[in-house]
Amino acid sequence: MSLNNIPRFDTHSHSEYSNIRLIDSICKIPDMILKAHELGMKGIALTDHETVAGHVEWLKSEKELKAAGKIPEDFKCACGNEIYLVDDRNNIERYWHYILIAKDTVGHRALRELSSIAWYNGFSSRGLYRVPTEKKELEQIVHKYPNSLIATTACLGGELPHFVAELVKAEKKGDEFEVYDWKMKIDSFIRWNLDLFGEDFYIEIAAASSKDQIKFNKRVVSIAAVYNIKIVIGSDAHYLTSKERPVHKAYLNSKDGEREVDDFYTYSHMMDNIEAFEYLKDSNFTEEDFKNFCDNSMEIYNKIGTYDIFRKPIIPRVDVKDYPKSDPPFTWKELYPTLTYLLNS
Known about the structure:
Oligomer: single chain
Number of helices: 13
Helix content: 40-55%
Order of helices and strands: EHEHEEHEEEHEHHEHEHHHHHH
Mean pLDDT: 94
Strand content: 5-15%
């Protein structure tokens, strides 16, 4: 089987709705779906930065594109969220990126409740509104709606990638105590995820040639094997293809001064299998490895059902009582004529 004939599902992408707090993505929803299909994917998950605001347009676009015959009926548009996962929002070291994908309508309710909790408890810090999710809150929602969510470790901004990067540094220095410490942190994090999600927990790698991504890709394979966790490829797309890279860079630099983003966003676009594999070869992955990663993504694809989230507006009936009214003081009527009128209307 040629590379481009291997079915693949993209577990990580961003639309313009990711810009709700910080300008981040230039992807338009209908274009994302069409481009993913054009590149040979079987589906794609929308995982904007702590928002589910794009899901209505996402699902409506999927329905419209299928009705118009522009994408096949078996193409899946999954609903997800890239949350900021922390131990305690009152004592935050870093805002760790973490991917959640809803399996179905119940899973989507879980996403909505988690997002509502994050925004309800949001706060401003260092010039940005922060909306983290505490691990105990994620635990509560997962237990409330069991087997409804899929989780992945997200990009290099995630907790596991950070731990692995520190482990690699410690191994290079030959510091056995530091190596042991980072291995224990990795073990604790992974076991927490496995206890919470079981076989619905995956490790994400990216098709990229950056030094940090290559180091993570190479080192995390043996870690995944120890715990029998499957690896998937996430595009983390913030623009459609490499052709839009200059436009995306200009967009990011259009606000709050110069914002150099070459290292972080160079590979943050959708790719067909051939382009993705070319980058993954830098991490010493073989075609067989690539096929396994694609098969794992299709396992997620097969876990995705339908989302029944559309409803007609529910307008409650309310009896408006005719409360007794007294004539306000003269000064009150003079100072507030409009309120006086409304009171006696």
